[in-house]
Amino acid sequence: RKPAPPFITSKLQQEAARKLGFTAKRTMAVAQSLYEGVDVGEEGAVGLITYMRTDSPRVADSALAAVRDFIRDRYGADSLPPSPVRYEGKRGAQDAHEAIRPTSLAYPPESVEAFLDRDQQKLYDLIWKRFVASQMNPAVYDQTSFDVEAGRFLLRATGQVLRLPGFMAVYLEGEDEEKEKDEEENPILPDLKEGEGLKLIGLEPHQHFTQPPPRFTEASLVKELEEKGIGRPSTYASIMSVIQDKGYVQKIEKRFHPTDLGKLVNELLVASFPEILDIGFTAQMEGELDDVEEGRRAWKDALKDFYAPFEKALSEADERMRHVKGQQVSTDISCEKCGNPMVIKWGKHGEFLACSSYPKCRTTKEFKRGEAGEIKVQEAEVTGEVCEKCGAPMLVRRGKFGQFLACSKYPACKNTRSIGTGVSCPQCKEGKLVQKSSRRGKVFYACDRYPECKYALWDKPIPGPCPECNWPILVEKYSRKSGEVSVACPNKGCGYKKSAE
Predict the structure, then answer these.
(1) pLDDT band of 375, cuts 50, 70, 90
(2) How many angstroms separate the CA atoms of 24 and 19, rounded?
(3) For residues 56 and 98, what is the distance between their CA atoms, to the nearest angstrom?
(4) CA 358 to chain centre
(5) Cα(229)–Cα(281) distance, rounded to whole angstroms?
(6) Position with higher pLDDT, 265 vs 181
(7) Which residues are catalytic?
(8) Max Cα–Cα distance, the chain, nearest Å
């Protein structure tokens, strides 16, 4: 197994998302700070990495010589290939800048750790290890098959046995979840001997079905953009930000889910601008701009070829594209307050039912469409809690920042509050932990005395105390990889964890 090449921009964003949980925007901001320079004591500000917007894996000869000396001193001559490893960039790479690497091997991560913040230290360590590993020997495996006799049955396991770790002693590239599942077909096996006795621990039958492709993560979406030729190293991070800031997608459990707004905008744009919304268009345009840059094509000709059909499509869209915000679709559902028909309208958060006599009657309802397209009214969930202002029942509503509690007598009473967990805040002891939602739509839990108390956590709190450190609360943790739910202590330094069962 050969080592991965040193980072280019897209691969850095993918790997930082997989291994560090960084967004593309956060990765580029941290990389920018490492590139611009960090104060490392007596030597002053030092730029620790090379330029971070590049699509070339090329490395300068001086850097190759330096890293080979470092590997020879640190890991031994056996870890070095006979000559430097050179990696070729993909077709169309601009090759203006080197790969992303440490500027000097004189600053290993451990020597500058005290001068870096947490994010800088993590990203620099990632860049350092990837660069060093890229110039080491491949890892060596034995492709192995075990036949295990079990009474009248013969069981077979096929996989790999690691013989020489090579570059893996320093760094191993992360994998997307879908690829990890593929690798389960060829797992790493233990080093067994012929004739060795094995103990049966258990039998686990599995049935496999073909699954639809998983939703995009930041890492897999950047990878797709790169493979399809959409965008440049400098634009991947902004693309991730724009689709979220505009509300076209929502990130749930680190995966992008299209919103109703995103689906609608996509539908309207594809209908009016099919050529531009075609996946191949952006890649084609990038190629034409490269031709202009390199003098193979006149820029006025390229602009004319694009703008003439675009202007026509734009004019037609202005006349034909439906104005969604003002449209109303009649239904046979009656308003529970005034008896008038309800109509489907479009709002910030998608479609909803509203009374046709608005503004006299302001009744609204959420709804879902059934498999046959029928409208099913979503009644607000009754919580058992009462409004502290008027005594009416509180209902669960959904707004811009997720779910919240609202008085059932709205609009006469406009009282709202966050959904409670019933768990006391372990930091201030006075407040209660309530459910909130971040700007990106991710649920978290925080003290209701904010900003006096700023205690917050991502995992759902449950009453404690921790049996090991006596911390007042515990949390539920969900593993996306195994699907298991566990109970753990959120107190730093305490490793208590057990199955939720």
Answers:
(1) confident
(2) 13
(3) 6
(4) 41
(5) 9
(6) 265
(7) 51
(8) 85
DSSP 143-179: EEEEEEEETTEEEEEEEEEEEE-GGGGT------HHH
pLDDT, residue 101, reads 96
Residue located via tokens 């059932």: 408
CB 218 within 8 A of CB 240: yes
Whether 129 and 110 have beta carbons less than 8 Å apart is answered as no
Kindly give the residue spans of alpha helices, DSSP state H, lying in 22-117.
24-36, 61-75, 109-112
Q: What whole-number distance in Å separates Cα of residue 176 and Cα of residue 14?
A: 9
Q: Which residues are 367's β-sheet partners?
A: 377
Q: Is the pLDDT of residue 179 over 60?
A: no
The alpha carbons of the chain give a radius of gyration, in whole angstroms, of: 29
Q: Which amino acid is at 180?
A: E
Q: How far is CA 160 from CA 186, 192, 370, in A?
A: 7, 12, 48
Q: Is residue 183 scored above 60 in pLDDT?
A: no
pLDDT at 440 over 70: no
Q: What is the reported pLDDT for 349?
A: 65
Pairing mode, strands 473-478 and 485-488: antiparallel
Pairwise CA distance, residues 63 & 69, whole Å: 10
Whole-number Å distance between alpha carbons of 52 and 16: 13
Amino acid at 486: S
Per-residue pLDDT, averaged over 71-92, amounts to: 88
Token representation of residue 369: 């469409």
Mean pLDDT of 94-121: 91
